[in-house]
Amino acid sequence: MAQNSLAEGVFAINKPYGMSSAQVIRDCQHHFNPSKLFAPLLAADRALREKEGKYQKQRRTHAKRDINVKIGHGGTLDPLATGVLILGVGKGTKALHDFLGCTKTYETVVVFGASTDTYDRVGKLIKKGDYSNITREQVEEALNSFRGKFQQMPPLYSALKMNGKPLYEYAREGKPIPREIETREVDVTELELTEWYEPGTHNHRWPTEEAEQAEKNVVKSVWQVAKNQQDGTTSTEEAATLIPEVVEKEVKALANHESNKRAAEERVDELVSEEPAGKKRKTETGAAEPMMSGALKDKKGKDKKQDKYAKNRGMDLAPPPPSPDTPFPWEGKGPPAAKIRMTVTSGFYVRSLCHDLGEKLGCGAMMAELVRSRQGEFVLGTDNCMEYSDLALGEEVWAPKIQKALDLWNNKDKAGKAQAVEPVVKKEEVKTEEVKAEEIKAEDAKIEKQPTPTPTPEQPAGEVKVEESASVKDEAKA
């Protein structure tokens, strides 16, 4: 990067566990604002502000009047997850929208034998299943149902609403859901079981908190609606109606579930619309705390205790992983688990895959870990993806890494940047076992029709070589 050029562009950072994407941006601004690397960028922004007319300056809110390094992200990452979070700085923020629709690669750990209302290990237990006969071969066979394009049902704990009312409330009241639950088409271009953990060989586990029976009824009734809708077996009205005598208990269950659901939603990082801010919150040093477009802001009238909460509200949003010393919530060796790697299109729910895989196997399953290892051409462990921990080591450590990543981005032409958003990946065609069998059968028929070559003097009888066709060779490789 030239000495006088502005530090702007696109890079990625490895988001830590338990932190929101918005908090990562705030932390980056905290380090970037006073740095030498971004001083020219801030100076340029100040110069532009000076050229603004009086009317433009008056229209700015107090938060907007404060000049900070402009940062945005190219798609949020769940606090429960770690991995690639794409950040745009300065003019690089204009390219972030392109990353929202690109493919992503995830690695997740699935624990079998139980289901939770949030589809992950931090929710409440809804049901348990028999996992004693679950094998790696069974799981790999079940994964065939999730390859290629299909309609995916979103996680139902997120309180999908119809006509402004959560699905759980329809179920609790014994009323039919007014229309089908909306699904979306997703495309899984890669799906592979990379590690298999036999019972007793891993530290992954179910949550210890179990939902009350009335609450389970609410959740199961909505799950049944979704299952029947996908199977096309039962009407929405039949599936959504609960037994009248349990309705009173469901009132309490709904309240409990709503409380748990709100806690779950707080773990899901969403952009927060900008709103007029009151007095600027001050740090211990007296400097104005960095703000960002879309960041969580303090409101008028908050006291110092509330301000402290707001400052740290994007951290510790997920409970820590279980300690090896913590007793297991089962007797014996417990259930198996599996690590699965997938490359998917935008809008894919990894939680739903884990839950649906357990339903297909009949034993239940939940997501225990999640890592986004790639988004576009930004990959963990490469020069364009720095470690979050580098920020605490000082500018002398993180600045050269960010500068190198920004150089990699800025040295690309328009076509190169488009390639960075969606790199060309050789995709193997997803085929069913029936299609593969038919293709092999057809190739065998072709080979049988070929005339048998006459042995040459150098090639004794009994060692006649038949040349395989290219497609047969490719099939053997697959």
Automatic annotation (TrEMBL):
CDD domains in UniProt: PseudoU_synth_TruB_4
Basic and acidic residues bias (residue ranges): 258-270, 296-314, 428-449, 464-478
Keyword annotations of the record: Isomerase, tRNA processing
GO MF annotations, alphabetized: RNA binding; tRNA pseudouridine(55) synthase activity
Region (Disordered): 256-330, 428-478
Entry annotated with the keyword S-adenosyl-L-methionine: no
Domain Pseudouridine synthase II N-terminal: 69-199
One GO-annotated biological process of the protein: tRNA modification
Chain intervals with Pro residues compositional bias: 318-327
Protein family: Belongs to the pseudouridine synthase TruB family.
Entry protein name: tRNA pseudouridine(55) synthase
